[in-house]
Amino acid sequence: xxxxxxxxxTLFWGKTVAGEGxxxxxxxxxxxxxxTHVLLDMDSLFRARLMHLSSMDEAGTLALLRFFASVxxxxxFSLPFQNMVPELARRLGIPEWxxxxxxxxxxxxxxxxxxxxxxxxxxxxxENKRCLSPLAxxxxxxxxxxxxxxxxxxxxxxxxxxxxxxxxxxxxxxxxGGVSLDGVGENGLCRLSWLAAGLFVLSDWVGSNSEWFExxxxxxxxxxxxxxxxxxxxxAVAETGVLSASPSGRLxxxxxxxxxxxxxxPHPLQRYVLDLPDPDGPELLILEDQTGGGKxxxxxxxxxxxxxxxxxxxxxxxLPTMATSNAMYARLAQSYRRLFADExxxxxLAHGGRALKExxxxxxxxxxxxxxxxxxxxGFWEGGAACSAWIADNRKKALLAPCGVGxxxxxxxxxxxxxxxxxxLLGLSRSTLVADEIHSYDEYTGTLACSLLSFHAALGGxxxxxxxxxxxxxxxxxxxxxxxxxxLAGGTTLPEMTVRETAFPLATRVMDTCLTETPVAASRRxxxxxTPVSDEDAMFAALADAHRAGACAxxxxxxVGDALAARxxxxxxxxxxxxxALLFHARFAGCDRQEIESQVLATFGKESRPEERGGKIxxxxxxxxxxLDLDFDVLLxxxxxxxxxxxxxxxxHRHQARTGRPEGYRSARMLVLMPEPVEDADAEWYGxxxxxxxxxxxxxxxxxxxxxxxxxxxxxxxxxxxxxLVEGAYAGDVPEALLDEALQELxxxxxxxxxxxxxxxxxxxxxxxxxxxxxWDRDQKTPTRLGQTTRQVRLVRVREGQLALWGAARPDDAxxxxxxxxxxxxxxxxxxxxVVPPELQTALDVLTERMPDKGRWSLLVPLVEREPGRWFxxxxxxxxxxxxxxxxxGEGAEIDG
Length: 897
Fold this sequence. Notes:
Elements: E1 13-16, E2 22-24, H1 25-42, H2 44-53, H3 58-70, H4 79-82, H5 86-92, H6 105-123, H7 133-140, H8 161-175, H9 192-207, H10 222-240, H11 253-256, H12 268-274, E3 284-288, H13 295-309, E4 314-319, H14 322-333, E5 347-350, H15 358-364, H16 389-392, E6 403-407, H17 409-412, H18 421-429, E7 431-435, H19 443-458, E8 463-467, H20 472-490, E9 506-510, E10 515-519, E11 526-533, H21 536-549, E12 553-556, H22 560-572, E13 581-584, H23 590-604, H24 610-613, E14 617-620, E15 634-638, H25 642-649, E16 669-673, H26 693-696, H27 700-713, E17 715-718, H28 722-728, H29 736-759, E18 790-799, E19 802-805, H30 816-821, E20 823-827, E21 833-835, H31 838-850, E22 859-867, E23 870-876, E24 882-888, E25 892-896
Parallel strand pairs: 3-8, 4-6, 4-7, 5-6, 7-8, 11-16, 12-14, 12-15, 13-14, 15-16, 18-22
Antiparallel strand pairs: 1-2, 3-9, 9-10, 11-17, 18-19, 18-20, 21-23, 22-23, 23-24, 24-25
Helix pairs in contact: 1-2, 1-3, 1-9, 1-10, 3-8, 7-9, 9-18, 12-13, 19-20, 19-29
């Protein structure tokens, strides 16, 4: 084995540092290999997940991973890369590269690998010439996406090719001695490539940190430097917070949830989980129970059970929205530490608006966010939630944390051709995935969710799915997706898994050997009297009556426009004081929405007192119907599909032990605004009452059946009628006039499903550009959700010619947090561009330049206050027509024109 690199290897730089210094390319490559080695040495679950996917023995697999980590930056030997810093290249004697640009160094590395691979295969006695291709794709795709090999690669290494080839030989001698690929076929390492790609990205990120790996201009003895790099890597990996955290031992029910009353006992669903035997491998749990039945706690109990058995090392809870994610974060922050033996285990919040969550920012303890004197050492806080600052600085790292909460989209990105999806898969592979409100996704996102189940099952993870309103068809689909993933992982066919049980509540458990369905006793009953209302005036009268009686009420409207109109009319025509009429929807700037969300939870949440909630009216959109622990004395709703109405009804008298409800409001009651479900309903039956809502819920057949069921039954009685209500909304006769539109919408759903199938990654293809039917392009985002296209708008206040971000803590604050606090998403069709007054353009350009992202992904909207609290700007829609952009404090954003 050669212990020194070639004589010319000292010419090459891998990382530049301040001044004229640089870090030797060979040193950087060995740093990354050392991080890979340490991660797999110190984290047994990472190692187990990789070995689960490998067709080789452990020693050979680990040797290959170290080797490919060491050559991941082979393309940096190229002239285009070395000449990226011309003065440094000249000083080191690198031949000049005069052409403009050149292929990315990852493509060059992949191209040069194809030249040197035959010699490596000979050394490893590999019969199949493509057997190393999956790991090569993973290594050279370390910038977050698979790359294609550059053609005519030798011209880019003219004068440096020999040194690059010698380096590969040095790395092969160092890492591959005694390894044999005899008998490994073309696809033998294909499954391994998914997690290997994430491992290489993680190793490169850690190995590129100069705080852990100081710059060295010379490599010297390779073996000696390797030992040094491993020592540094052990320190670095420990400080990142990415290692699996040790679980705590078995706990009593009250130890899991310390905030419970002393006399609290497990709900039946929670008792079911507590009584399950320890798992001996991956499993799927589908837990169905009504709102408030303790499903979330049951899921945490299941996740800890997996952790104690060694089949997972943490939990990620994925929810439908940022609001529900924030609420879940607050709940877990109080108790998640009980799951771990390590007090510093991180809890991460993963969604686009997490920089608005004050308690999450406090958990990170960054000096830039809080004074250093407030927090403890290493980015951890005394009490409350804790989070490693290194993990917290990027949403792509969030799934590496032992405990995480966020929108399910963060996990769905792992099965789409998005940049660094492999890092998301790597982190998620160690955790139990909990997906709440799994019924709430449309056909497109639901198809991606099934793909995520298959991937997670194939990677060896476990899943817990939660729902209060799941159809049997959906349950069957989810079970099939799980079974498909397990079969992909093992290359075998599992026993037939058939969903049969119709009981509710229900626990479905799927293992490699069998499927069991266990009816569970109900922990609570939902008995809500339903009054169909066809006159909108009657809805307002009911809200006014509630206000006068000192009751609290909520009207869930199907669109933001309808919510805004309802709140204005309630105040202006029915005399409800503006301070008692709260408004909650998704079209507020980040800072305002966070404040309103906190106010809603304080006013209507579990800890709210009669004097805080009495006489308060909330006009809201769908943001309140999922996973928010809210309680109202009376609930109003626009007509929506049955499963969503059940969700909304669950917010009526949710806290059944609450006392002090006003006279006349001591039994649960819901008013539903809806057209009468007549047998001769025409095509405008729903759209006539809800002109905008018809685009939110475009299945008139489902809506008509829902209305008929409500009118016939006059109440929502759960659990007795749960299955009949949900299944009945999706099957049965409807008026003929509604069929054409229903069939058109079904066709759209099929198209959306096909779109998702085309976009999703295919596990069996391995980490390769051909693994998706769509383009894997860093400049093209593959969506996790469909619907009306929106764009990110960043609001800017204009006062006396001075510009400031809407959510800035002070006028000169242009930090990323201030940017996020100022953002709102608006219709891209209604607002395609802004019309900026000429006198403001220079000041806007200056403000934009001060922003960390230079405003690249947002439309900056200058607003002038014409009336107190009412701000106006101008723009153009996609047709080029001038529109007015209005932001009213307390009401949010609107676009007219």
